[in-house]
Amino acid sequence: MLSDGPRAERLLALTGMTAETLRGGLGDPGVLGAVLEFLAAHEPDLCAAADHLGVAPGALIAARDALT
Predict the structure, then answer these.
(1) Which of 3, 8, 44, 49 is in the most buried spot, having the most CB atoms within 10 Å?
(2) According to the model, what pLDDT value does residue 3 have?
(3) Cα–Cα distance between 42 and 14 in angstroms, integer?
(4) Nearest to 51 by CA among 43, 30, 64
């Protein structure tokens, strides 16, 4: 997420997190939920992340749903 400049800027702006908070909170359900919510809100981001991770977009939505 952070390697794509425009996407990273949107993620940080919309979640209110810093890059350091994001990197440090990867094991935090709140941070993970915020990232997954960000992805779910914009299908191109969701599909790009799913492709990069080698999973179906629905798997990311299911993960988000499991955290909420």
Answers:
(1) 49
(2) 76
(3) 12
(4) 43
Quote the pLDDT of residue 40: 95
Please determine, for residue 2, whether its predicted confidence score (pLDDT) is greater than 80: no
Axis crossing angle, helix 29-40 with helix 43-53, rounded to the nearest 10: 120
Q: How far is it, in rounded angstroms, from Cα 64 to Cα 36?
A: 5
What's at 36, amino acid-wise? Answer: L
Q: What is the largest CA-CA distance in the chain?
A: 28
Amino acid 1: pLDDT:
66
Task: Kindly report the average pLDDT of the chain as a whole number.
Answer: 91
Q: Is the dihedral of CA 27, 62, 68, 66 positive or negative?
A: negative
* First vs last C-alpha separation in the chain: 21
- 26, amino acid identity: L
**Cα 41 to Cα 38: distance, rounded to the nearest angstrom:** 5
